[in-house]
Amino acid sequence: MRREIPGPVGRLEALLDEPPVGRGSNRDGRYETGRIGEILAAVVFAHPHPQYGGTMHTKAVYESAKSLARIGCAVLRFNFRGIGLSQGAFDNAVGEQDDCRAAIDFMAERYPEAPVWVGGMSFGGYVASIVGVNDPRVSTVIGVAMPFGRFDFSAVRDSIKPKFLIHAERDEVCPLKEVREFYAAAAEPKELVVIDSANHVFDGKASEVGDALEELLADWPDPMSGAQTR
């Protein structure tokens, strides 16, 4: 469902994926706005670096959103300021954090009873994770192809909020070695899944990102109860 949500510098273009009929739907098979039903979580998912072609339509972002919707989440993908129909201009991850907060505002208001999760890919993973660990409404953080080494992730590393990470074995932007170092130092609870033979954008492997998230989170019972590591 295409949406326009209010942002700090104007409208933000967005897409909302709600759970399939039967998950949180009423007896007529229609989904009721704002009804918790069986919603696992209200999720905000951010896209990769806009100056390198990242949008809410990036394949791994699309697959992530669809997989989360399949397990019962309502998922909002949005274009950062200056991308697509979103107003404003690129702000080097500063204003983009405000965009992410606006998306959280929208989802928290629309699904007031649901846990709020944030996620993102690469640049969007940095933005979403920094916002998420500092926002008391957010209970869980999801990071795909996180650019450790290019930004300061110390707040994410030290946060006790659950952190679910998906990374590519052959990531040329953030080598797997850096991810493993971050993961070893990160506070519990946490999970890391590595996609074999994949590159940073998961060419030919995007569906595996969705599969990994579905497997990790389908039975996630309590966002603050802790995750096992591997």
What descriptive keywords fit this protein?
6 helices, 21% strand, single chain, 8-stranded mixed β-sheet, disordered C terminus, alpha/beta, Rossmann fold, globular, 8 strands, 230 residues
List the helices and strands and how they pair.
Layout: E1 2-7, E2 10-17, E3 42-46, H1 59-70, E4 74-78, H2 95-110, E5 116-121, H3 123-134, E6 138-144, H4 154-158, E7 163-168, H5 176-185, E8 190-195, H6 206-217
Helix pairs in contact: 1-6, 2-3
Beta-strand share of residues? 15-25%
- What's the architecture in CATH terms? 3-Layer(aba) Sandwich
Rg, nearest Å: 16 Å
Low-confidence blocks of residues? 23-36, 222-230
Integer count of domains: 1
What is the CATH T-level topology?
Rossmann fold
**What structural class results from the helix and strand content?**
alpha/beta
Structure description:
The protein is α/β, with parallel strands linked by helices and 230 residues long. It contains six helices and eight strands, in the order βββαβαβαβαβαβα. The chain has helices at residues 59-70, 95-110, 123-134, 154-158, 176-185, 206-217, and strands at 2-7, 10-17, 42-46, 74-78, 116-121, 138-144, 163-168, 190-195. Helix 1 (59-70) runs parallel beside helix 6. Residues 23-36 and 222-230 have low confidence and may be disordered.
